[in-house]
From TrEMBL:
The keyword Protease does not apply. It comes from the Bacteria. Coiled coil: none annotated. Residues 1-24 form the signal peptide. The keyword Signal applies. This is Spore coat U domain-containing protein. Keywords: Signal. It comes from Pseudomonas aeruginosa. PANTHER family: MEMBRANE PROTEIN, PROTEIN U-RELATED. Residues 14-160, 185-311 form the Spore coat protein U/FanG domain.
Length: 315
């Protein structure tokens, strides 16, 4: 009986010793960081934060063995840095947009070129829980700088990462067997900046008061616009609500005062077909025009005369 008992115990011990090692398996592939397509004014005014995939993945035993597990990613290079600051670049315009590389969504710590990002956990299970990018890889967070005036176009950069890891995987008897390794990966970053335009102001136009139609003087006014840097645009005026006989008209009941809108120094009526072209600066721009009452028309009864003209900004 004791011989049988002893034999069974030895057999059990031999079986445990033959258990396979469950090592961590870490691999790399290309990652991505896509900011999407955004208005130039959105990019200038609001920092954009995205979760980038790094392409670094690890698999292995999920045993919660207390141990030290670390992964480090050194930002070895970027394609368009200014010093150690990474930048997105648009080759067509030669313009740059700085951005930050962060470990967390809040960007509490910014990592520049040459910096090393480190992750650690006392369990392998805990560190695997950090692999929550959309492709299952370890994420990095990217955030754009604000206050930069950009032309429309596609902006790109490539981040080069050097990886090193020291991970505890389950070995025989549930003991910790460390897997140490190094690898490299790259992250392709993209942002598409869209052209955009706004009519910031279109003040009411007043000719004031006069007893005779011929006494109304010309009035100079501005339309305030804001368009993406280098974006071309045109501004036109429609004919208003009461156009007739080549003249816009302000009405008071059945009575009318004829007037028109002109470009400064131009005797041609400003319409939707005779427009004014411009190029955006990314900042506010005033587009001047001149309003003139037809001095050759007859006098009209006293009253308040009005019309509504629409400003059409095309880009």
């Amino acid at each position: 009986m004791s011989r049988h008992s002893t034999s069974a115990c030895l057999l059990g011990f031999a079986t445990l010793c033959a258990s396979p090692l469950l090592l961590a398996a870490c691999t790399t592939s290309s990652g991505t960081g896509n900011f999407g397509s955004l208005s130039s004014f959105t990019v200038a005014s609001t920092a954009q934060t995205i979760t980038g995939t790094t392409g670094f993945k690890c698999t292995g035993s999920l045993l919660s063995i207390l141990s030290t597990n670390t992964i480090a990613a050194t930002i070895a290079s970027t394609a368009n840095p200014l010093g150690t600051t990474p930048r997105l670049y648009n080759a067509a315009s030669g313009t740059y947009l700085p951005y930050s590389i962060c470990k967390d969504n809040g960007c509490g710590t910014v990592y520049n070129v040459g910096s090393t990002v480190r992750w650690s956990s006392t369990t392998f299970l805990g560190i695997l829980g950090l692999f929550n990018a959309t492709d299952g890889s370890l994420p990095l967070y990217l955030r754009t700088a604000t206050g930069v005036t950009l032309p429309a176009g596609t902006y790109t950069d490539t981040i080069g990462l050097n990886w090193a890891w020291h991970l505890c995987a389950a070995g025989a008897l549930g003991l910790c067997v460390y897997d140490d390794g190094t690898a490299s990966s790259s992250v392709n970053v993209t942002l598409t900046v869209l052209k955009d335009c706004f009519i910031d102001s279109a003040p009411d136009l007043s000719f004031g008061s006069a007893a005779l139609v011929s006494a109304f003087t010309a009035v100079n006014q501005n339309i305030g616009v804001r368009c993406t840097l280098n974006a071309t645009y045109t501004i036109g005026f429609d004919n208003g609500n009461n156009f007739s006989g080549g003249w816009r008209r302000m009405l008071s009941g059945a009575n009318a005062i004829q007037y028109n809108l002109y470009k400064p120094g131009d005797s041609t009526v400003w319409t939707t077909s005779n427009t004014q072209a411009g190029t955006g600066s990314g900042a506010a721009q005033n587009v001047p025009y001149r309003a003139i009452v037809n001095p050759a028309q007859g006098n009209v009864p006293a009253g308040t005369y009005s019309d509504t003209v629409r400003v059409i900004l095309t880009y």
